[in-house]
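<instruction>
Derive structure tokens from the sequence
<data>
Labelled lines for chain and fold
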Amino acid sequence: MKKQTAVEWLVEQLMPKVLTAEQYYHIEQAKEMQKEQHKNTWYAGEKDGAIHEFEYYWEETYGGSK
């Protein structure tokens, strides 16, 4: 079972099930920002191979970039 990101959890708690295109766009932007923050933290602690390791970790943990 995949984990939820903090952004996904917040959306689930606050948003109705039907979203406008603008709301969906902003949610997706927030998810990408959160992924970038995780990636930057990951890279700070890693050296060679960090990019591939991070992408694998993210996919396995959160189900991809979205």
